[in-house]
Amino acid sequence: MATPWLLLALFLFWSTVCANSFTFYSPEGFTLVRSILLTALPTFVLHSYQLDGICKVLDKIDLVAVTPTGSGKTGFLFLTIIVMIAIAANPSLCPTTTFPEDPAIVVIYGESFGSDCFLTEIDNSKEENMTKLGISALIINSDTIASARILGENLWLKTRAGIAMLILGPEQLISKGCQDLLKHEPFLDRVCALGVHEIHLLTIWGLAFRKAFTQIGFMRPRFRSGIPMIGLTATLLSDSRVADAIFAMLGFNRGEFYLIRRSNSRHDIQLLFRTLYSGIDGLYFPELAWVVRNNDKTIIFGATISLVFRIKIYLDSLLPAGINRDLRVRTYHSINWPDENLETIALFKSNPQCHVIVATNGLAQGNDIPAIKTVIQVGEPESAEMFVQKPGRARPNVTNPRAIFYISATRQAKALKIISQSDAENAADAKKEGTVAMERPVAQIISARCKPFVQDELYDNPVTD
After folding, report:
1. Where do the H-state alpha helices sit in 164-220?
2. Which domain holds residue 168?
3. Are 213 and 170 in contact (CB under 8 A)?
């Protein structure tokens, strides 16, 4: 709650501001937004780049924020709605701007596996965090809908009023419940902004196996005109073809939105590249034997469920008698029941005896599991985005976080060949070999003597940040 002296100070402040020329993206606007957020979150550290983006959105300008993992991307969403709620509750804070009495932001949260039921753990953590901040949040995906149905609840009706942040899985955009919600005029009047988390997935997954992502671009016309959109990611390649494809799917035109591009290099994480001598299709991975003797919280990524199973079985075989294998080494993938994946994350967070998770890419994005010290990738990363995202799972609050990539000598040689050939030659080789071509950015990273330098080039990272 705002204290009387702060309200008085804000009133006096506004008495000196020219109402006709006010914008949030101005010294006066920065002061106002800082004051509102300091009142709502006294201990929160507001970054200058967050303030920049929030003020642009409040001025109804679209935002694309490219910031590293762990840098507070979600803050662009919850800080914006906090300001909107404060002004809606007390219009005297900003006499030149009005927000509906019950403002809301709709967020498309497109992470985890190809079915949105696996968003539950990630979304639950977001919902819990929003609640702690005093924001009423609701997640709607196939899993939460099923749980609500058992209780006789209709989440789509619940979100019509009193929910400040609605978090949707992409698959819900074509559901009847969502269609009915978007026909409810009072709800449309409440929506003040749209958010899309991890926008790089629009092309990586939307054009491949998760077609629901292509629906995100059609969402905007279904809301009131003039509503700003917030696009967030840590991995937007500098390649204009990739970026323009993502912007087109969002309905953005270059020059008509505000871009924040910070370096996505995580200099606090040690990057290690090691040669994988074991066959990736085999049953033994002696390079990983040290993991079971290590007590650090570790995530091991494998490209396929088969590889995850084989790594799990191998690590289990190394554990001494008396050790609970199903507790010490867990798996996380789409064949597991959703409850089992949720249990894995819960155990990893709370049980000191649970040390290792062997996972597919579903755990590579969006999770904020504390105390992860070591991230291991067996085989090359599938994309440059995965090269950035996976090390980012290591938490900055642990001592000496690290990411280790085990890549075979054959694939290292393949990377060198790819960067020496044209895309047409590489595609012909892949067709002849009956394999999927290694992406050129991945080959550039693998073959580079200085990996961070190549990362900076691929993502147009600022020299100073």
Report:
1. 176-181, 185-190, 201-204
2. 4-261
3. yes
